Amino acid sequence: MAGAFWANFGNNGQSCTAGSRLFVHKSIYDKVLDGLAAIAPTVSVGPGLDDPAHDLGPVISQTQLSKVLGFLQGGEGRVVTGGARLDRDGWFVPPTIIADVSDDMRLAREEVFGPVLAVLPFEGEDDVLGRANASPYGLAAGLWSRDVSRVRRIADRLQAGTVWVNCWGDTDAAAPFGGVKQSGYGREMGREAISLYTQTKCVWIN
Question: 2-197 belongs to which CATH class?
């Protein structure tokens, strides 16, 4: 539960790899929502320079605050926690969890880049893979499962440059990083990054 929570709310959701769309099997949907909702109030939001104990700071600018609030004021889904700007100086938004999100909603189709998590129910592997891969983006994805066979099946079929299993955000300088579709091409880090700095010569002799 905590892993899925911080996959999105780490860095206040302002990350290119934020897990802002969470698919949960319908058999445990309510249980997961309750668990996520229980974590949210324990998160301290405020200026880190005033108190380094704060877990989350503000969104980056007034422009970004307006964008985030635009998602929240759109009336999509059901607000479980948060949902509005905090009543204090600064661009602060609490961890916001939105339930009952459908694939056609902006929350499921666009990048929020803020502390907003959309939670969607799914019924089976083919269902969740088809819907997850329908996104025009493909930088990163993650899955939580104890079933190793299922992990291999889903990881192979997910259209994303990075797939994290039972974790989120792990990285290493030796591991390639990059996306597919509108999330880019080519890779940073790892041996694959060397190709960005090479000049291959092709010589034809007839």
Answer: alpha beta
